[in-house]
User: What shape does this take?
Amino acid sequence: MPLIDVRNVTKIFGARPERALARLKAGAGKEAILAESGNTVGLYDVSLSIERGEIFVVMGLSGSGKSTLIRHLNRLIDPTEGEIVIDGNDILKLSIRELEAFRRQKTGMVFQRFGLFPHRTVLQNVAYGLEVRGEPRAKRHARAAEWVATVGLSGYEDQYPAQLSGGMQQRVGLARALCTDPEILLMDEAFSALDPLIRGQMQDQLIDLQSRLRKTIVFITHDLDEALRLGDRIAILKDGSLSQIGTPAEILLSPADDYVRAFVKDVNRARVLTVETVMKPPPLRLTDETLEQALAEMQRQGAEIGYVVNARGYRGVVTRDSVNAAIASRAGPTVDEIAVGAPSIAPGASLAEALPATLSSTYPLAVISRDGSLEGTLSAAQVGEILTPSKDLEAA
Amino acid sequence: MFIDIGKPIADTTNAFIEWLIVNHGDVFESIANALLTVLILIERVLRGAPPWSVILVAGLIAYAASRKPVLSVGVMVLAWLLGSLGLWEQAMQTIAIMLVSVGIAVIIGIPLGVVTARSDTARMLLNPVLDLMQTIPSFVYLIPAAMLFGLGKVPAILATVIYATPPLIRLTDLGIRQVDHAVVEASRAFGATRWQMLRGVQIPLALPSIMQGINQTMMMALAMVVIASMIGARGIGETVLLGLQRNDPGKGLVGGIGIVILAIIFDRISQAFGRRLQAYRAVEG
Ligand SMILES: Nc1ncnc2c1ncn2[C@@H]1O[C@H](COP(=O)(O)OP(=O)(O)O)[C@@H](O)[C@H]1O
Ligand SMILES: [Mg+2]
Assistant: This one.
């Protein structure tokens, strides 16, 4: 069961949304409704599921409804229609007291403009969530101090937000959100206001934290590079409706419409795509067969090449010719003896990292996972095909 | 062409006041007594203490509020001048009335400001009342107040509160509405209750504006002292009033200078405090 389940959520801003809702369902456009009744369509029929422990990125242009969507998840905004189920509970049914408790226990939020309390010190800002929970002062300050240290701001505990740089302020924002140990972290363009260099550092820090904390993170951004870097899955919003939900590779390799295509066309695919998303399925794998067994297997599967992986790890490549030659010269008893060492690549490597090896290798590169199993192969031709996506561009 | 509504309004009001006096006179009396008790206590402390100690405390308060030695010394010199003008006793009486009035204004004004900041309806309803309180001549409510509470200090306090509370309500409202929306949202996102939000975020961030309201309330309260003395409250206003009545412009001027000195003292202390509150409370860094 997903942790967060958003079902057919529609949000219409402005007075008396019912009429606008009816018009929307009858097919009227966003602009038409705004002109007719002054109602703004924030979201229209959005459904998505977010799994425990993933970083779910929501991307879209400014005004596409990203902030509106994320504010539904802790009910800073109530939907006009639809359901929001979190951890099995319909949060729209919560009373105001229950909702406050839900926010205190389950969620933390980081804001684009930081939203720090200007009259509180760094430590008091970070401790705010615990203060609201009613934790005793000593306990909440001790916890807050740990988080201040975790985000690298030790020594700044007693400074005020106005005394810090933007990047430092957002570290405070991140520490404040994490200090209550929430299951769900909501981040609305948390890094968008920062310089590119600082933004990169913050992304690294978030990835590093996430590898230890395994939170469920909903991350909003309008920056595709950031989305691809952080997201386990990405949802793309356009004018309040979802265009596509998928893994970074799915978004890049099969964009659902022209809007998504326009987003992805300038992406450096070599840096973003990993070997495992484009490799061919595993070819013939040999272990400790005798030469004759290997030859028979190659003939049966119609394979020209075999990849030898046995208890000692990846041993290299044999071809039908090399096996035939070895049989003729009565060399070694098994394929292991005659395998020619060849480079391999990890499934998580980027295409940019894999490209030199694929170019220098005579045979398609073996993709070997950390535990030593053969996952697939990657050839220079395949890489070339992915990196020059002629058909996508022509369609765009 | 005209219908006569003036007379019915006047008659109804008179009947109502009469009814209040007859049926609830004791309520007003106990209110008056409670106020008087507090007022007399403050007055006794101020007048009983040796003047040098009052001057010293004024200097300390000025320093605590501003952290500026110059201001502190200036306040002490001004306070000494009050005594040298021969107005010490009267000044202490005026300060006591002012403190009680401002205290009541704060107790009423800040909660009302919070309510109007929260609700546009409440603001819409209260606004004309505040306009009325500030524009209607004081004597209009002084007469019934004197009938209900008797002549003297209590109706003076009442008149001062009516006249001086509106700016505090308005500036509290403004201060809370001006708090950065993003900061309030952050507090809500962390599950703060309305009360926690108000106490921990909105009021602290509105404090500079609220302090400005208190400053204005103090100034307006001081402006009421002459009128208050006409219904029998003692104090510096009495000196001015005597000058008028006895055709003694010199005495009137001395009283006037005394009021100005008091105004400067309270204005500078409360302004300095407000400025110090401003530190770190800027919306964005
Ligand atoms: N409180 C509001 N009242 C009226 N319209 C709003 C409100 N909040 C957002 N909108 C409108 O809803 C749309 C989506 O806004 P938003 O979710 O902030 O977009 P994004 O975060 O993707 O830039 C915009 O057209 C915006 O003007
Ligand atoms: Mg936004």
